[in-house]
Amino acid sequence: MIPYGRQNIVDDDISAVLEVLRSDWLTQGPTVPKFEKIVADATKVQHAVAMNSATSVLHAACLALNLGPGDWLWTVPNTFVASANCGRLCGASVDFVDIDRRNYCMDPDALERKLKTAEKENRIPKILVPVHYAGQSANMQEISSLADRYGIKIIEDASHAVGAAYLDVPVGSCQYSDIAVFSFHPVKIITTAEGGIATTNDASLAAKMRRIRTNGITRAPEEMLNPDCEPWVYEQLEIGLNYRMTDVQAALGVSQMSRLDAFISRRRELAQQYDEMLSDLPLIRPWQSPQGQSAYHLYPILIDTERAAQDRSAVFKELRNSGIGVNVHYIPVHTQPYYQSFGFGFGDFPVSEWFYSREISLPMFYALTDEQQQLVVDRVRSAIEKCDVPNIDCWSDRRFRGLEEAVLVQRFRIVGPARFEASIISIDSIEFSTKIAMMANTPNRRIGRITRKKNPIFDAPIIRD
């Protein structure tokens, strides 16, 4: 099985870890600060604070910015749940901003519209968490401008984006944010086995995050309320947790960072090759913004249902069955049962749902060979051609001419394993849902439901059972 992502460990990495294992310091020693400085230098930022996971870093960053009950945190649906959970862990309420259809990151236009509404309702968020999906930066210049206008703090979830650049500056420089967060999980670009790091240019935020990762405790005389005390004394200044990274993990990180440029270069080479080899297939390939350079943590493709009526699930299963360990990133967070309990549901963020319904993440990692990549492409081609999914013929007509509003009737005839016909009626300028009558050849086929909203992102209605 060719996985969608994997770590790359060499002898130098193993030697670095063994050196720490043989030393006096397995944790709270000199290697964590060394790793922090290397990351800070690479991202051109003043401070870096390492922890045991990016999830821990997101939580600590929210605590450092004093997020709490009565506050709001906004992020995107197209992310791992940790980007939202960090707000809930602080007792704050969470909401979402839909993504841009090109870069799959937070849409500044959607953000601006939502902020105008939130201002009227007196629920402006305290923190925004834009996510740099797949390794490409969100449009931070516009997002930051809006945040400044409304007095909002920004945490960049850059878990996918170590080594990426935005406007010729490394992602993580915090030029447009208060804090940025990187992940070092094994499938990420570099790894510390598990781990994460916060970068910031604010010395007070860095100091607070260091305390939070160590149970809220400090031994630094300049931070203590009673600095003139015995040498064994420490003070707890706030609530905190044990979010420390070990020196063993940091040693692996130090070694991995020495190859960051090579990792990024190979990922960009693989992405360019995918772009070329997949260009004739009915797929939507990743778009690269001219504002930045992606780190290509992921290579997401979308099944282009306008050019080929393919079923993502069938293509996914066929690829898995043929030895290609594809994955899907991500199930929109607002559709998870926990967040549905707060009133969120399908249809709330249509671009994220559009993206999710089509996305497959292809293998993308440093050690992926050209031969393996060619095999992946061959299997993708075969899967798309092989899948027995419905063929959809669409046409429209104007009916009901006696009505004041023109009514567009779109009829779909779907021929395949689930054979049915449906007529979908939508009235201009009106949002509504209507039941679809379906004559299926399976006895347990449920009555479907279609939602059509007056929104330019809908090229066709979304049908779901």
Tell me what the structure shows.
The chain has 465 residues and is α+β, with helices and mostly antiparallel strands. It has three domains: 2-260, Aspartate Aminotransferase, domain 2 (3-Layer(aba) Sandwich); 261-386, Aspartate Aminotransferase, domain 1; 391-464, no CATH class. Helices cover 31% and strands 20% of the residues. It has 13 helices and 23 strands. It has a seven-stranded mixed beta sheet with strand order 2-10-9-6-5-3-4, sandwiched between helices. It has a three-stranded antiparallel beta sheet with strand order 8-7-14, with no helix packed on it. Helix 6 (140-150) links the parallel strand 5 and strand 6. Helix 1 (11-21) packs antiparallel against helix 8, helix 2 (31-43) packs parallel to helix 8 (247-257) and helix 3 crosses helix 7 (203-212).
In brief, what are we looking at here?
With 465 residues, the chain is of the alpha+beta class. 31% of the residues lie in helices and 20% in strands. The protein folds into 3 domains: 2-260, Aspartate Aminotransferase, domain 2 (3-Layer(aba) Sandwich), CATH 3.40.640.10; 261-386, Aspartate Aminotransferase, domain 1 (Alpha-Beta Complex); 391-464, no CATH class.
